[in-house]
Write a structure and sequence with these properties.
This protein is α/β, with parallel strands linked by helices and 370 residues long. It is built from 16 helices and seven strands.
């Protein structure tokens, strides 16, 4: 007796030049199979979520080019007179937008990106006549003066983002991300597998990659992840990752570094000149660092050769945390970013300094001709 579920071939269907393969679907309890698959999926998903919740992870919005693009388009949509923040992770994590809004009456546009020199983003704003507000440029010495750039494609993405990509971004940030703690690149299964203690492979770098450091909201208000302050083991992991770059053996060649520093300063000076020519106030900001990280920065990027040279070349004012007692003494768990419990106090102090010495009425009167 022929198998009723066997796939028919040309021999089974003579006279048909191009037979269409046909295989009947076997009779199975498909409803129960589907229900079992759904239950298994829910069990695995719930287990993965519970595992990371127990680790201390909470739902947050992924900081990617799509989220950045939403904020960048606020300038195009008529908010060009707002205060805009660009920079690297310190300006991104340490400045709390709700505190600034409470003090200033208007929420800034946060366009900083971790691990990225702000130079390309400053040049983008310099080329955009719709931006007429105030600009704070965060300068993290290593990231800026070495020209690091991980997210430069965000500018192009903001301009070419398709309707389907915008819809996917909306669904992700309003439906999935606020509910799923594991929906973070640091906890993706492939990432978790890649960072296991595999045997070393010849020719493959053995540096430990930076782990999760921050928690973001829909408008990119971001703070350092509280686990760095509360979990000594995780804090030491973050410090050990930073230590990989502190050794003199990891320094770039001195001649190459000097050329890179000079090139970064020159490009930034040109961009700032274009901004100031159309009346945009620009303020450079050197946020706090501490411990071994600060010692590394002072050794490789001495203030006179970097920060002071940048201010001299650009002609723009700069606010360095070491010049203001009220911007010092905060808890930086991994020496580079302020703990979330203190970031609000820091933001209020920073805003007070800026208003008093740079942008407020008293600063204006102090700089007026006598």
């Amino acid at each position: 007796m022929p198998d009723r579920y066997a796939r028919q071939t040309a021999a089974d269907r003579p006279g048909i030049a191009q037979p269409v393969p046909v295989r009947p679907v076997p009779e199975q309890p498909w409803g129960r199979i589907l229900l079992g698959a759904a239950l298994l999926f829910a069990l695995l998903l719930g287990g993965w979520e519970a595992y990371w919740r127990a680790y201390g992870v909470t739902p947050g919005i992924a900081n990617d080019s799509g989220l950045w693009a939403i904020q960048r388009r606020r300038i195009d949509a008529g908010e060009g007179s707002a205060t805009v923040i660009v920079g690297s992770s310190r300006a991104f994590y340490d400045i709390q937008l709700p505190v600034w809004e409470r003090l200033d009456g208007r929420r800034p546009i946060q366009l900083a990106f971790e691990g990225t020199s702000p130079l390309t983003f400053v040049e983008d704003l310099a080329d955009d006549p719709r931006f007429t507000g105030r600009l704070i440029i965060g300068i993290d010495p290593q990231v800026f003066f070495q020209g690091f750039g991980l997210h430069k494609d965000a500018i192009a993405y903001a301009r070419r983002q398709s309707p389907s990509q915008r819809m996917g971004q909306w669904l992700s940030m309003h439906v999935l991300e606020p509910r799923l703690a594991f929906d973070d690149p640091d906890f993706a299964l492939e990432t978790v597998l890649a960072r296991q203690a595999w045997p070393p492979r010849p020719g493959k770098p053995s540096l430990t990659q930076v782990r999760k450091l921050s928690q973001s909201e829909a408008d990119r208000n971001t703070h350092l992840w509280s686990k760095l302050a509360d979990d000594a083991q995780y804090r030491e992991l973050a410090r050990s990752i930073w230590r990989q770059r502190f050794s003199p053996a990891a320094d770039p060649p001195p001649g190459e570094l000097r050329k890179t520093i000079a090139a970064q300063i020159e490009r930034m000076a040109r961009a700032v000149a274009r901004l100031r020519a159309r009346g945009v106030p620009v303020l450079f900001l050197r946020s706090p660092s501490d411990g071994e990280y600060l010692a590394y920065e002072m050794r490789l990027f001495p203030r006179a050769a970097t920060w002071d040279a940048l201010l001299a070349a650009s002609g723009a004012p700069g606010l360095h945390f070491q010049d203001y007692p009220q911007l010092q003494g905060y808890y930086l768990p991994e020496w580079s970013h302020i703990a979330p419990a203190e970031a609000e106090r820091y933001t209020a102090a920073l805003y007070g300094v800026i208003q008093h010495d740079f942008w407020g009425p008293r600063a204006d009167s102090a700089s007026a001709p006598r």
